[in-house]
């Protein structure tokens, strides 16, 4: 049974309208004729796959990408008429399951192509599939030579419907990285003979790289959820999630004493410390803690930025609220740990990770609710 707002240590507010607005903004950045899909893998980056998919459908999005067949089946149950691609490909022996759920596998190897073709022949039906090329990321996908060989074998490709040709950018977050143009050139060269088939290259970063990368379909992910797609430009996307954690206790710590496990940080003044009911079990990364050698993350309470002090524990963190007026923070107060005033990319920088990991790692102990997020507070 999910804890109620009163019993949970924190609450997670998700703004579905903000997700839809981000999708509309991205759609507007694409060249005319390019379809804007949505990547909703990992439970829609922690926001709830079915709820997010339904809101995006209402906004006009009809094509979705997930990582795993199980995720696809969940989306299919919510949206019977949507187009759903499975990025993880075809697990051995699962062709009938994907076809039965009307899911489209992204075939990433010659073995997967052969298995899907064999299934379609046995069923005497050309089920759709996408083909992915490895253009330099060296993750999933067929090398250009393998792709050309597959496309030359009509007994394979003629047995199913090729719905999409696609690849994935390795360094799109850095617009100046030479691998972007190399991948683009490789993709164009490999797919040009089949340019009548729909093609896709742009993830969130690819949308911002410009029309050369847009092709027929873009499939943004992190930008939908307010994340930063480019390392070198301001983030223009709206935040879509807010985490607030409850203050459990306020204590006075004299100058010279340490706080938390390992005595990692020593207070340099008489300090007022708030112990807050959220930790790494709730998605607040341990690496974002602070020590005498390095600063850590922060929260915001009543417009005041309050630094994390000491290590992040499993179930709690300590925040230095010495400079916050006494009436603004009391036992039971909520502190914003992620949201309009605390960008996931900022927290990720302290934790030496990326905002993707923060969003997808949000814990299940929060009381989850769907509502509009408040405007950022002036500090």
UniProtKB/TrEMBL annotation:
Its cofactor is pyridoxal 5'-phosphate. The modification N6-(pyridoxal phosphate)lysine is found at residue 41. Keywords: Isomerase, Pyridoxal phosphate. CDD domains: PLPDE_III_AR. Pathway: Amino-acid biosynthesis; D-alanine biosynthesis; D-alanine from L-alanine: step 1/1. Substrate binds at residues 139, 314. One of its GO terms (molecular function) is alanine racemase activity. Its EC number is 5.1.1.1. Pfam families: Ala_racemase_C, Ala_racemase_N. Residues 240-371 form the Alanine racemase C-terminal domain. InterPro entries: Ala_racemase, Ala_racemase/Decarboxylase_C, Ala_racemase_C, Ala_racemase_N, PLP-binding_barrel. It catalyses: L-alanine = D-alanine. Gene3D superfamilies: Alanine racemase, Lyase, Ornithine Decarboxylase, Chain A, domain 1. The active site is at 41 (proton acceptor), 261 (proton acceptor). Catalyzes the interconversion of L-alanine and D-alanine. May also act on other amino acids. NCBIfam families: alr. Belongs to the alanine racemase family. This is Alanine racemase. It comes from Roseibium polysiphoniae. The gene is alr.
